[in-house]
Amino acid sequence: MIDNIKQTVRILYFAPCVLSEGVGGGARLKNMINLLERLDATIVLLSYWTGDRFAVTHRKFNNHLSTTTVLVRGTFPRFIKAFAIMLIVLYGLKHVRKSDVIFTHAPIITSGFPALIVAKIFRKPLIIDFTDVKERITPKRIYRQILKMASAVFVVSRYLEEEATKEGVTNLVYSPGFIDPNVFHRDAKTRERIRNILGIKEREIVIGFAGSFSHVEGVPHLLRAFKNMSNKYKHVKLVIIGGMNVPNSDDVEQLIKDLNLEGRAIIVPLQPYELMPSYLSAFDIGCSPKIDCKENIAASPIKTYEYMSMGMPVVVSDIGQFAHVIENGVDGFLVKPGDEDDLQRALEYIILNPDKAMDIGIKAREKVIQDYSQEAMLGRVSNVLAQVYQTKENAR
């Protein structure tokens, strides 16, 4: 039960992703749902997701959470995708009378638009978790209407804070990426088991990346930097967890072959979110070599918080949110986006200075616990829900 509210808050949540996805929006969604469950809220989650078929699935997780997911093939024509969005609206209309608050994971067409319609018709307060820049397919007018309709907006980065302010949003709450450090922590036995599976020896150092192979992630830069240093450091390996699961993906597997890195660079298929702490335990260095683009300027990549929470040194492109998060050389390293020499220098420094690297990793985990954990965000979300709910009751 949320402080200052005498009954359980019932939330109708619209999302453009599903809980089973371990990267990007799916990880943020999972963490937000977990946090709301800790506040004793009940949640009906309605998700639009691109799959391998058209289907509607229903699932009840526990007394707090039930989900409905509309799956649509990416190759379907637009009118079928539009039908799927309207199907989400219909499910929203079915549940809205028993809801106190409408949540939407982003002000975009697949989640924000159904939330806007349902909130307007039934005059329910709307809360937005503003996580990314506007998608190309979302009309600017709808994007603005969703933001203006909101009773409160969580923003994951300072860039999106400025973006929402330009659109006239006043009730903004800075809420960057957050995770559960009790889940993301290094376990020695798990580390040994995963490294054995991957064929990594005890004294070998693992540079790790986890995420999609989207071109904005900059994985080719990491591969080329690793290639430049691979002959010098025979005891260093690169583990890449992910796949070509989004449009405009880099062909990482082919690039590994082109660079003659087979056996030194290992690709692991994208893993379920609950297994990610185990696989991250195998890493010694976490790397996020993102390129300079609007998407990365606006985002607050949750994977880097996960690296930091594991107590490892991180090397991150100096772009967007992480210029505000990481103190260079203290709790991580910032490198110029796309600069493979700078990336290589940071990685070599960590390899050659293990004691300093260990200290940086410890400080990284301490920062996550203090500023980017579920505990750190619990009060902010609770206060917003209490404020919105009380405004609703006063109006009634």
Can you describe this structure?
- With 396 residues, the chain is α/β, with parallel strands linked by helices.
- The chain has two domains: 191 residues, Rossmann fold; 184 residues, Glycogen Phosphorylase B (Rossmann fold, 3-Layer(aba) Sandwich), CATH 3.40.50.2000.
- It has 15 helices and 14 strands.
- The protein has an eight-stranded mixed sheet, with helices on both faces.
Q: Widest sheet: strand order?
A: 3-4-2-1-5-6-7-8
CATH architecture of the largest domain: 3-Layer(aba) Sandwich
- Could you name the CATH class of the largest domain? Alpha Beta
CATH topology of the largest domain: Rossmann fold
Q: How many individual domains?
A: 2
What value does the average pLDDT take? 91
Give the SSE order as H and E letters.
EHEEEHEHEHEHEHEHEHEHEHHEHEHHH
Q: Helical element count? A: 15
CATH fourth-tier homologous superfamily of the largest domain: Glycogen Phosphorylase B
Query: Radius of gyration over alpha carbons?
Result: 21 Å
Strand coverage percent: 15-25%
Give descriptors for this structure.
Rossmann fold; 15 helices; 20% strand; alpha/beta; 8-stranded mixed beta sheet
Task: Summarize the helices and strands and which ones pair or pack.
Layout: E1 10-15, H1 25-38, E2 42-51, E3 55-60, E4 65-73, H2 78-95, E5 101-104, H3 112-122, E6 126-130, H4 140-149, E7 152-155, H5 158-166, E8 172-174, H6 188-198, E9 205-212, H7 219-230, E10 236-243, H8 252-258, E11 265-268, H9 276-280, E12 285-288, H10 294-298, H11 302-309, E13 314-317, H12 322-325, E14 333-335, H13 340-352, H14 354-371, H15 374-395
Parallel strand pairs: 1-2, 1-5, 2-4, 5-6, 6-7, 7-8, 9-10, 9-12, 10-11, 12-13, 13-14
Antiparallel strand pairs: 3-4
